[in-house]
Amino acid sequence: MRPFDGKRVLLGVTGGIASYKSVWLARLLTQQGAEVDVVMTRAAGEFVGAITFEAVTGRRVHTELLAAGHALDHIRLAQQAHALVVAPATADFLARAAHGHADDLLSACLLATEGPVLLVPAMNDRMWAHRQTLANAERLRELGYQVLDPDEGALAAGEGSGPGRMPEPEAILACVARLLEPPGALRGKRVVVTAGPTREPIDPVRFLSNRSSGKMGAALAAAAWRRGAEVTLIAGPLAVPSPTGVRLIPVETTLEMCGVVGEALAQADALIMAAAPADFTAAEPAAQKLKKRDAPDRLALAATPDILLATRDRRRPGTIIVGFALETTDAVANGREKLRAKGLDLVVVNDATEAGAGFGVDTNRVTLLAADGSTQEVPLMAKGEVAEVILDRIEGLLRGR
Fold first, then answer.
1. Distance in angstroms (rounded) separating the CA atoms of residues 379 and 299
2. Where are the domains of the chain?
3. What angle, 0 to 180 degrees and rounded to 10, lies between the N-to-C axes of helices 215-226 and 169-180?
4. Residues 219, 383: contact at Cβ < 8 Å?
5. In angstroms, rounded to a whole number, what is the distance separating the alpha carbons of residues 64 and 74?
6. Residue 248's Cα: distance from chain center in Å?
7. How far apart are CA 108 and CA 69, in angstroms?
């Protein structure tokens, strides 16, 4: 899977209780297509065995700096790696790395590495909060390493919770992917993505909505962030987690989404309108819960704002505007009309009646219609793969501006 296929990742594991999560990280990296070389410190071996890493990576684990036949392991491993990841990185390791120590295999590999480095601290919250640890982390950032902030959550038994917990392997995987992604037109750009449905209140407990899960928008946000963009995700209620690295702005109604999109657009290089905002709202929402016995004979509806149309006068010159058109009849014809009427650069059309496409599923089949008149048919594939095709087109449009 992009960008791991054919890449070698050097995974350093130090002696912390969080090292059990590193086994799953090694497995995730391997499943994505990376070759994973694990370097364990002696203390790491007290928490998890080398044979466990060998089982999930299919590769020998490295532990010794000074041993017969291993004199140049630190140079060879560092030269072959496309990225070095240390997870967990203990307070002791951060201190030694910040001061250039090379007294074990992992710290020697760090000094010999010329590629990108990701350090993932994990320790007791009091140790992380110590001024010396924070100073060491800042020094490592100044040296050009990426140092993640620990998560806040449950720590070791009896220690309660606080900042110091190692991020989950899936989040670390996303950060490694961003390190490995080759430079493209989205790097450093500001991308706004909308996702999910909106909810229009009928009364305080009921609402009008649709079947959107937000999976397509979340996949686009995740892939744009991996490509180096600064991503804002404006989303109604999602059926999937918000992607790592993106700024999530949750909204409820179409009017809310319209207002937030208008504000975010002022700084955006691209707007990808993948949400499925409700087209109608209750004309007069009830202030109290409607009782069944008092149910009205009919529900009066009013049109909600057209978000894309509302952005026309607020778009910066050069901003790429992408719309989505979910149709049930004449999908391509309706998509072309939307492209024209709303002044879009690209519209992504799909048929809600087609099996495996549309709302709630993990796959999609779409047609891309561009303002230059071109058409691109995208076969049925995972929504993450569809996101890559869409972003390739957006990068092409950005390069042409």
1. 40
2. 8-180, 190-400
3. 50
4. yes
5. 9
6. 11
7. 16
Phi-psi map region of 300: left, alpha, beta (phi>0 left; psi -120 to 50 alpha): beta
Residues identified as active-site: 210
pTM: 0.93
Average pLDDT over residues 197-218: 95
- The alpha carbon of 84 is separated from its chain's Cα centroid by a whole number of angstroms, namely 20
Alpha helices in 67-168 (DSSP H): 73-80, 91-98, 105-112, 125-129, 131-142
CATH 3.40.50.12370 matches 8-180 = no
Inter-residue contact 192 to 264 (CB < 8 Å) = yes
CB atoms within 10 A of CB 261: 26
Q: pLDDT tens, 268-326? A: 999 999 999 999 999 999 999 999 888 888 899 999 999 999 999 889 999 999 999 99
Overall residue count recorded for the chain in this entry: 401
Q: What are the DSSP calls for 335-386, one per residue? A: HHHHHHHTT-SEEEEEETTSTT-STTSSEEEEEEEETTS-EEEEEEEEHHHH
Query: Is there a contact between 383 and 215 (Cβ–Cβ < 8 Å)?
Result: yes
The neighbour count for residue 190, using CB atoms within 10 Å, is: 19
* Span 67-76, pLDDT tens digits: 777 788 999 9
Prior bond of 250 cis (ω within 30°) = no
CATH number for 190-400 (one of 3.40.50.10300, 3.30.470.10, 3.40.190.10, 1.25.40.20): it is 3.40.50.10300
Q: What is the largest CA-CA distance in the chain?
A: 86
Q: What pairs with residue 118 in β-bridges?
A: 85, 146
Q: CA 301 → CA 285, 295, 308, 381, distances in Å?
A: 10, 15, 21, 37
Helix (H, G, I), strand (E, B) or coil at 312: helix
How far is the C-alpha of 71 from the C-alpha of 79, rounded, in Å?
15
Separation between Cα atoms, residue 395 and residue 229, nearest integer Å: 11
